[in-house]
Amino acid sequence: MTTTTVVHLLRHGEVHNPKGVLYGRLPGYHLSENGSRMAGLAADWFAGRDIAALRTSPLDRARETSRPLSGAFGLDAEVDDRLVEAANHLQGIVLSSRSLANPKVMRRAYNPFRPSWGESYSQIVERMVEAVKTARKEAWGREAVCVSHQLPIWMTRRAAERKRLWHRPDRRQCGLASVTSLTFEDYKLVSVGYSEPAASLYAGGSASTSGT
Fold it and tell me: Which long-range contacts (CB under 8 A, 24 or more apart) does 155-160 make?
């Protein structure tokens, strides 16, 4: 008999960011009203599932996304620093064609395969895999939810599917408040699933917010 465990990677909801700042790991960026509704829809999607563990990135937007789940399942969200957003040397800038042409920005953009502007893809995968293993152990035979961010979740999925880590950011399948589900039989990954519980709230049908 094998033991089936599912680890769900939940991306946070929409963030209040009217100036279009690349906020990365900066503090003080919270869910918008729409983002809070997204978090609620995500919690509804998990209703009836056997959730035994809840872990979250330390950033405000992720912790706020975890709260409806915490209330629904009576679980405290354990903060796991390994689930944090990817480090980015460009955080704090306002994204525009002008800012992207800035020589200081261009100096960071010489190698998109690593990438040179922040934490390497391989480093992201390494820490996320360890976070998933911890969640799997904690929820063994049941299900766990880990609230994280677009790039870390997408890197985990590409690694799970044995795809190259370098990719086009505009082709990531990781919408706001989306769920990427990793199903294990004992320690073996047997499937990767994807769902968008909050798709009805995506502005203009788009779920991406500058890879955050």
Answer: 155/121, 155/124, 155/125, 155/128, 156/9, 156/124, 156/125, 156/128, 156/129, 156/132, 156/180, 156/182, 157/9, 157/192, 157/194, 159/125, 159/129, 160/189, 160/192
Q: What is the pTM of this model?
A: 0.91
Taking the mean position of all CA atoms in its chain, how far away is CA 47? 20
Calpha distance 156→179 (Å, rounded): 12
Cα dihedral 194→80→160→184 (10° resolution): -80
Q: Please tell me the CATH code under which domain 4-205 is placed.
A: 3.40.50.1240
CA–CA distances in Å: residue 16 to residues 23, 93, 108, 195, 200 = 11, 16, 27, 23, 18
Tens digit of each residue's pLDDT (9 = 90 or more) over 35-65: 999 999 999 999 999 999 999 999 999 999 9
What beta strand segments (E) does the chain contain? 4-11, 51-56, 78-79, 143-148, 179-185, 188-195
Tens digits of per-residue pLDDT, 121-153?
A: 999 999 999 999 999 999 999 999 999 999 999
Packing angle between helix 33-45 and helix 60-73, nearest 10 degrees? 40
The CA–CA distances, whole Å, from 75 to 28, 52, 130, 198 equal 25, 8, 21, 22
User: How far lies 181's CA from each of 17, 20, 97, 145, 164, in Å?
Assistant: 28, 30, 35, 9, 19
